[in-house]
């Protein structure tokens, strides 16, 4: 089977040329940039019409794809016996190992579309009820949009903020926000963070896939943004609800765990009496500041399509809750309409991780119901794509996406974790947002148990910030959890401990026993598994005394022996339903100045994106050097996008 490339070279011709060192750089680039078109009638049809043809009966001849490369093609070839002979045979070429195959001729309907079905063509609205104009139009009154609108209005621009929710129904997903070197933390004596360290850590965790300018903006300007935003929030709200998390209580943590850095920078907006998330209420005061600065909010305005004059974006059309259409013209449009996590078809197509995780479990990866998710409807991203934008490259992963997580204690922390057979099976330090893939490969019904002892609170002081542990800076949290733990009861029924990892009055069951033997029975270990568990705890304690985890590489500062009664456990079994996570961060490409890009990587005049409409903030996977960076990053992107809009308009 001879493989023909689009420029007429066969793979074999190319490899011969490469080995002889005769092919030009231009030819190499041309070949690398083209997909082999195959041979026979299917290839001819594709070349002439751009359409593929299926084999007889609508099936595809998969056997035709078996490669013949280096399978008797060169009957007189003799393997080199010495290094010198091998070097001579190679010439100055590099590539000689192929093995590719012809395409099957699969039709776009059976494979993929440049215009996905969920996107389709941009709607044409010809019954607009009215048109108004402004300098800056911001689509979406969430974190990014609210900040961007206020920033522009303060600068004297005429700004309209359009929000799909009604005023009375408005709600917000946000809760935690990480903003480095913000005044609330520095005012409590928290050491200033080197934001270049923060920037480098985020880039390292994204494996270089994130956009460096966007990440740098977040690392270096989030504190500035937060302090500015707080000047637009009533002082009594800041005083009562803004909780600076983990600025104390982790005094023995050195900032690095298994090579990954984390920093205290997260603010949570909580009511102490109910523990309710207050940010959806507090952000309304920022809306008030925006209106006081001359801005206007259009509540109940669902974005439908952007308006263009040639290649430039000049506004947008919205549908109100009664079905009427309204056009708003603007010199600049900032898209902040949120993610696509609530759109099952977009989630299925765009979230590589979710689709293929379902497939890895043997589920139908074309079934939208196989992949759960939450979030917005993706309309803002669609509007950008219709205007000429492109999605960021993959792989694309949701925030906290996957199937399984370790059981965890109500008070948080990383603890020794024991599996079905009573043995440890992982490095417990590296199980956090962005690193749960290992757990996703466990079978459904796999038992996992976290275990610690009477020294649990002391052990917490050696652990990291954020999702790894409870906020030990909030005295009301610590006091209640401590009281719950002091009132423990032993036995298989367990006892309730306030779980502060989520908002509201939620409790988690913790189990206690006076001996490890009794604790094993409560967990459900019997026979060999129980013997293994007791031996594994003994082994683990030996590693703690040694100060080095020879088995799984847990960070030495996190090696906490299980030796003093009472002993505590939290346990559960794995599930089998993939989750899309809290939201989807993948979105459209920008130039680092929040200007939306075409496929040629040229800015679309007049169009900007922030928040979860702005892609490349995380690259391949959400990660948490500080908990709350999703909201913190979104807020900062709106702040910086507005500054770029103002500069461009000037």
pLDDT average, as an integer? 86
Q: Low-confidence parts, pLDDT < 50 over ≥5 residues?
A: 1-57
Per DSSP, the total helix count is 19
Distance between the termini: 61 Å
Percentage of residues assigned to helices? 25-40%
How are the secondary structure elements laid out?
Elements (H helix, E strand, L loop, with lengths): L10 H10 L4 H8 L7 H10 L33 H8 L37 E12 L3 H12 L4 E5 L12 E3 L4 H4 L8 H11 L6 H19 L4 H7 E3 L11 E2 L2 E2 L4 E4 L9 H14 L3 E4 L2 E8 L2 E8 L5 E11 L8 H7 L1 H9 L18 H8 L30 E2 L18 H4 L6 E6 L3 H5 L14 H12 L8 E4 L8 E7 L2 H8 L3 H20 L20 E7 L21 E3 L5 E7 L19 H21 L1
Helix pairs in contact: 5-10, 5-19, 7-8, 8-19
Summarize the structure.
This protein is of the alpha+beta class and 650 residues long. Helix content is 30%, strand content 15%. The chain has 19 helices and 18 strands.
Q: What does this protein structure show overall?
A:
It is a single chain. The protein contains 19 helices and 18 strands. With 650 residues, it is of the alpha+beta class. The strands form four sheets. Strands 1, 2, 8, 9, 10, 11, 17 and 18 form an eight-stranded mixed beta sheet that branches. A five-stranded antiparallel beta sheet has the order 12-13-16-15-14. It starts with 10 loop residues before the first helix and ends with a helix. 44% of the residues are buried.
């Amino acid at each position: 089977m001879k493989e023909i490339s689009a420029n007429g070279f066969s793979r074999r011709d190319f490899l011969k040329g490469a080995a002889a060192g005769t092919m030009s750089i231009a030819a190499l680039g041309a070949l690398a940039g083209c997909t082999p078109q195959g041979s026979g009638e299917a290839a001819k049809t594709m070349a002439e019409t751009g359409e593929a043809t299926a084999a007889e009966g609508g099936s595809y001849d998969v056997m035709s794809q078996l490669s013949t490369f280096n399978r008797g093609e060169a009957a007189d070839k003799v393997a080199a016996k010495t290094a010198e002979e091998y070097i001579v045979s190679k010439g100055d070429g590099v590539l000689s190992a192929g093995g590719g195959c012809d395409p099957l001729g699969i039709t776009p309907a059976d494979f993929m579309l440049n215009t996905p079905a969920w996107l389709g063509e941009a709607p044409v609205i010809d019954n607009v009820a009215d048109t108004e104009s402004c300098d800056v139009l911001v689509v979406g009154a969430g974190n990014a949009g609210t900040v961007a609108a206020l920033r522009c209005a303060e600068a004297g621009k005429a700004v309209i903020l359009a929000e799909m929710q009604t005023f009375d129904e408005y709600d917000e997903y946000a809760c935690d926000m990480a903003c480095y070197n913000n005044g609330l933390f520095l005012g409590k004596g928290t050491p200033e963070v080197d934001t270049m360290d923060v920037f480098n850590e985020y880039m390292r965790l994204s494996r270089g896939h994130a956009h460096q300018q966007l990440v740098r903006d977040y690392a270096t300007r989030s504190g500035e943004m937060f302090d500015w935003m707080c000047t637009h929030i009533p002082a009594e709200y800041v005083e009562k609800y803004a909780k600076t998390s983990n600025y104390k209580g982790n005094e023995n943590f050195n900032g690095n765990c298994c090579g990954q850095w984390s920093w205290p920078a997260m603010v949570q907006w909580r009511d102490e009496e109910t523990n309710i998330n207050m940010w959806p209420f507090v952000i309304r005061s920022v809306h008030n500041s925006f209106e006081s600065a001359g801005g206007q909010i259009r509540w109940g305005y669902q974005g439908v399509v952007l308006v263009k004059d040639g290649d430039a974006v000049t506004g947008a059309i919205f549908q109100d809750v009664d079905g009427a259409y309204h056009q708003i013209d603007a010199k600049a449009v900032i898209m902040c309409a949120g993610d696509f996590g609530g759109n099952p078809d977009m989630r299925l197509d765009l979230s590589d991780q979710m689709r293929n995780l379902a497939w890895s479990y043997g589920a139908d990866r074309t079934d939208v119901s196989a992949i759960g998710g939450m979030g917005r409807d993706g309309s803002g991203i669609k509007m950008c794509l219709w205007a000429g934008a492109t999605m960021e490259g993959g792989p694309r992963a949701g925030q906290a996406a996957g199937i399984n997580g370790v059981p965890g204690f109500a008070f948080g922390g990383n603890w020794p974790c024991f599996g079905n057979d009573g043995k440890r099976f992982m490095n417990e330090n590296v199980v956090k947002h962005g690193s749960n893939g290992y757990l996703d490969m466990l079978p459904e019904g796999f038992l996992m148990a976290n275990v610690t002892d009477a020294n649990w609170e002391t052990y917490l002081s050696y652990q990291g910030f954020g999702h790894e542990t409870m906020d030990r800076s909030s005295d009301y949290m610590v006091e209640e959890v401590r009281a719950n733990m002091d009132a423990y009861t032993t036995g298989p029924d367990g006892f309730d401990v306030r779980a502060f990892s989520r908002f509201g009055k939620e409790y988690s069951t913790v189990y206690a026993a006076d001996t490890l033997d009794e604790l094993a029975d409560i967990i459900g270990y019997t026979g060999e598994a129980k013997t293994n568990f007791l031996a594994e705890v003994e082994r683990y304690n030996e590693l703690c005394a040694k100060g080095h985890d020879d088995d799984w590489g847990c960070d030495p500062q996190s090696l906490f022996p299980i030796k003093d009664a009472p002993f505590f456990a939290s346990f559960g079994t794995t599930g089998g339903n993939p989750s899309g996570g809290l939201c989807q961060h993948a979105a459209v490409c920008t130039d680092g100045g929040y200007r939306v890009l075409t496929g040629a990587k040229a800015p679309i005049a007049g169009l900007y994106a922030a928040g979860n409409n702005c892609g490349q903030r995380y690259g391949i996977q959400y990660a948490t050097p500080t908990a709350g960076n999703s909201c913190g990053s979104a807020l900062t992107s709106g702040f910086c996008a507005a500054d770029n809009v103002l500069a461009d308009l000037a």
